[in-house]
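Good morning,

Attaching, inline, the backbone tokens for the sequence recovery test we're adding to the shared suite. The designed sequence is right after.
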């Protein structure tokens, strides 16, 4: 019986405009079954701060993989549980065994504000025949009815990262239905703290290395290239988050009585931030780029082969000038970044006041590329703050002695961080996977030396010492981490086909 949340999602379609699935061999009933499973998983709240909800997700996934012939286990950690699953190759002797391929996913999602979501809550999946921004209307998914490639499912984690997990489950179902053989030993890792920086992933994988290491690890996370081609990446950026606070007087001061006299931390912080980057986007922190490893000739060729999409993306996102005119986005992904992600000073409940604030705070994220150590990059940022005349305090606020001795006071705190990771382009099994997916989807894959986003790639490449690639499958405009996150069904069904090709490749 069709689940209520899938049956009553909006108006019933009477049009005949559902697009054909040119590269997909899935039957309509298989597509419907995949969407039914997707709705079931998306309906489970998965914000990691609610461990009761997280446990329900872990139990669901353990059972889902066991149903498909896997030996699965929930590993308890000091944070969210990690789900491990394994199934052997179906190949008969003497050809049996084959390589071991490990898939990595995460099942936790970013925090949500239900008031920001259109028409339904973040854990009440709905389908539309296009993006909300383009006027996509609510539609119903009915057994035997049309399913369009341009349709989208709206729910938290639809694109990041539950849709990807269900794609693998559906690929396994399709392999079984078609009486195909799985040609490799398949291992699966699913963590519940990725959105919190993967604080227990490394220790968990090292403790269970015999059940997680593979001849190739495939991280299935993130959006594929905006050209729509299947996409693979051979590295992912690391990340370092930091908070910088500039101090003024001990307490807020009246801006009329003390304006033009008492120092304003908000202005001082603005000048300090401006000193960190020039107008062409180059970071001015001394040594910021010193450890960058140049791209290899093959990596440069791979970037040159990628269709340029910057102009289309700028139009879609609504800006006319990139930070660094003339440089490709994929080249920028292979450099470290310094981003100001938030500013706070002198507000109460979002309302401004006529004061000189006592402090002003900025939150930064610094994306890291191969060979850049998070601690060293943080030290460079701290030294830059000192070079601008600031004394960095160790406590939450300056002491009276520090206030008397130093005209400029600031506090810089590292919040979290992990390094980048990279696998060589010429890894044979990686090339075999890319070729299999290209054949299955009848398209030339995009190969990225480094993913723009951050992921715990280094845990696999540097700690487990396993060749690792990424296979992002979601649509690039999926609103991940924000309200109205969505997954385009064309990408979802392509992901099923891609995973089926990997499961059965010769």
């Amino acid at each position: 019986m069709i689940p209520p949340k899938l049956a009553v999602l909006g108006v019933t379609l009477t049009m005949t405009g559902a697009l054909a699935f040119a590269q997909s061999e899935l039957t309509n009933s298989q597509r419907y079954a995949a969407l039914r499973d997707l709705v079931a998983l998306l309906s489970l709240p998965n914000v990691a701060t609610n461990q009761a909800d997280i446990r329900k997700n872990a139990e669901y996934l353990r059972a889902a993989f066991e149903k498909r012939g896997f030996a699965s286990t929930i590993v308890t950690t000091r944070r969210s549980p990690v789900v491990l699953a394994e199934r052997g190759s179906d190949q008969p002797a003497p050809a049996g065994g084959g390589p071991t391929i490990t898939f990595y996913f995460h099942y936790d999602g970013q925090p949500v504000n239900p008031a920001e979501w259109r028409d339904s809550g973040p854990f009440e999946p709905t389908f539309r025949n296009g993006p909300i921004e383009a006027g996509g209307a609510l539609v119903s998914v009915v057994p035997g009815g049309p399913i369009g490639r341009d349709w989208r499912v709206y729910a938290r984690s639809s694109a990041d990262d539950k849709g990807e997990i269900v794609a693998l489950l559906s690929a396994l179902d399709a392999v079984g239905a078609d009486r195909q053989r799985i040609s490799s030993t398949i291992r699966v890792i699913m963590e519940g703290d990725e959105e919190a920086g993967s604080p227990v992933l490394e220790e968990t994988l090292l403790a269970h290395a015999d059940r997680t290491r593979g001849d190739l690890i495939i991280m299935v996370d993130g959006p594929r290239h905006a050209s729509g081609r299947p996409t693979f990446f051979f590295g992912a950026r690391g990340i370092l988050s930091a908070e910088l606070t500039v101090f003024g007087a001990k307490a807020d001061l009246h801006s009329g009585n003390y304006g033009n006299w008492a120092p304003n931390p908000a202005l001082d912080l603005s000048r300090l931030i401006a000193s960190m980057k020039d107008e062409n986007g180059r970071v001015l922190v001394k040594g910021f780029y010193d450890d960058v490893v140049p791209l290899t000739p093959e990596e440069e060729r791979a970037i040159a082969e990628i269709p340029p999409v910057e102009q289309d993306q700028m139009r879609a996102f609504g800006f006319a000038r990139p930070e660094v005119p003339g440089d490709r986005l994929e080249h920028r992904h292979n450099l470290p970044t310094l981003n100001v992600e938030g500013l706070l000073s002198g507000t109460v409940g979002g309302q401004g006041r006529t004061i000189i604030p006592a402090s002003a705070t900025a939150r930064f994220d610094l994306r890291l590329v191969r060979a850049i150590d998070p601690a060293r990059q943080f030290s460079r940022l701290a030294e830059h703050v000192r070079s601008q005349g600031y004394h960095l305090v160790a406590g939450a606020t300056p002491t009276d002695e520090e206030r008397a001795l130093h005209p400029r006071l600031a506090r810089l705190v590292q919040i979290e961080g992990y390094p980048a990771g990279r696998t060589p382009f010429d890894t044979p099994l990686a090339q075999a996977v890319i070729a299999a997916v290209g054949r299955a989807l009848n398209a030339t894959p995009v190969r990225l030396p480094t993913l723009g986003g951050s992921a715990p790639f280094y845990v696999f490449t540097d700690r487990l010492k396993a060749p690792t690639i990424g296979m992002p499958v979601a649509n690039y405009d999926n609103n991940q981490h924000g309200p109205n996150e969505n997954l385009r069904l064309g990408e979802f069904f392509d992901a099923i086909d891609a995973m089926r090709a990997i499961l059965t490749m010769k």
